[in-house]
Design brief:
By secondary structure, the chain is an alpha+beta fold. The protein contains 6 helices and 17 strands. It has a domain of 225 residues.
Length: 358
């Protein structure tokens, strides 16, 4: 982000209330979004599942053991994330915020009006960006192809493109003709750096489906006329011990759209709402063994994910890292940067079931 676009303030003459508001951001709250945070990860962490196979047999009197104890590895890998910002404090002088700077416009006056508000808004925005574009929709850098001047791009295509001497990541939003790049036609592209950071849960699930390690539950399209039935299909596909609650709370993760459809369908069918206890909405006819978990990181997706609580994990070094902004004063501007590491993983595929909707 370059300097805040202060010229927009000039379009509103007159008095201003001396407060600002930012958008209501959906902060990155893993603990409330059904994802378990594993701290202290610097690079890769092996998540080993201890597997004990069946081995009971009729008595023989002879000791003959078989290889029935094993570890099944899943690797949680974190990738470094960077957010750069640049602010030129003197650009505030032609605005109503000028009087909030201290006296004296010498070279040392680097005051930023509403500085605390601005930095808080930046952090909230970063949290939202990671939550909506990395946690589930992240695909990693390898999924982006170098921009080709002779290529026609369609919505959803991912490219790398060099701007200001930096390799950047973009997603197409409008069909192009050859030569329409993020420089020449910026409206046809949107920033997709957060999707390049690391593989999100959606990419991980998609890769496991391709590798035939996860078989999607066939639900078809979900609507207010069938959502409860479709949700129940996904839940009932879980292994019996999970449905019995032997491994902890079973959950069905849904976008808010599918969650609302599920509520509507159930209510229209039996004229009674779901039971909510201690903030958990339980799926009807499961004896409170399955909770419904609407999560913002599934926004834009129609995939339903059923698993046991704690199976979806995020790795980082210190979760507070992304709340630390380092600033360096240059001659006339302030450089600010945020860095942290982040990675996503599913610990045990055997207790994971997903719908066939992407």
């Amino acid at each position: 982000m370059a300097d805040p676009i202060l010229s927009l303030l000039a379009a509103y003459p007159g008095e201003y209330r001396q407060q600002l508001i930012s958008e209501l951001y959906n902060a990155l709250r893993f603990d409330q979004e059904g994802i378990t945070v594993i701290p202290g990860v610097k690079n890769k962490l092996n998540l080993h599942k201890f597997l004990v196979e069946d081995g009971a047999k009729p008595y023989t009197g002879n000791f003959v053991a078989k290889d029935d104890l094993s570890f099944v590895p899943r690797v949680l890998e974190v990738e470094p994330v960077q957010r750069d910002l640049l602010v030129e404090p003197k650009k505030y002088l032609p605005t109503f915020m000028a009087k909030m700077r201290r006296k004296g416009e010498d070279a040392k006056n680097m005051d930023i009006p509403f500085a605390e508000f601005m930095w808080n808004a930046v952090l909230k925005s970063l949290s939202t960006e990671i939550n909506l574009n990395t946690v589930y929709r992240g695909v990693g850098k390898a999924a982006f192809a170098a921009y080709g001047a002779g290529t026609v791009y369609n919505p959803g295509d991912l490219i790398t493109f060099t701007q200001n001497g930096e390799l950047r990541y973009f997603e197409n939003v409008t069909v192009t003709v050859a030569g329409q790049s993020p420089d020449t036609h910026p409206a046809k592209w949107k920033w997709a750096g957060a999707r390049a950071v690391t593989k999100g849960l959606g990419k991980i699930i998609g890769d496991e489906i391709t590798a035939l390690n996860v078989a999607p539950v066939v639900t078809g399209a979900v609507s207010a006329a069938n959502a409860y039935d479709k949700t129940m299909l996904v839940y009932r596909s879980l292994p019996e011990p999970i449905k019995m609650g032997e491994a902890g709370q079973a959950l069905v993760y849904q976008s808010m759209t599918d969650y609302e459809f599920t509520m509507d369908h159930y209510e229209s069918s039996v004229s009674k709402n779901f039971e909510t206890i201690n903030g958990i909405t339980y799926l009807a006819k499961t004896e409170k063994r399955c909770g419904l978990k609407p999560v913002s990181w599934l926004s834009g997706s129609r995939r339903m994910i059923a698993s046991v609580e704690g199976n979806l994990v995020a790795g980082t070094d210190e979760f507070s890292d992304m709340n630390v902004i380092k600033t360096i004063e240059q001659m006339y501007k302030i450089e600010a940067g945020i860095t942290f590491v982040l990675g996503m993983q599913i610990q045990d595929l055997e207790v994971l079931k997903v719908s066939d909707q992407a």
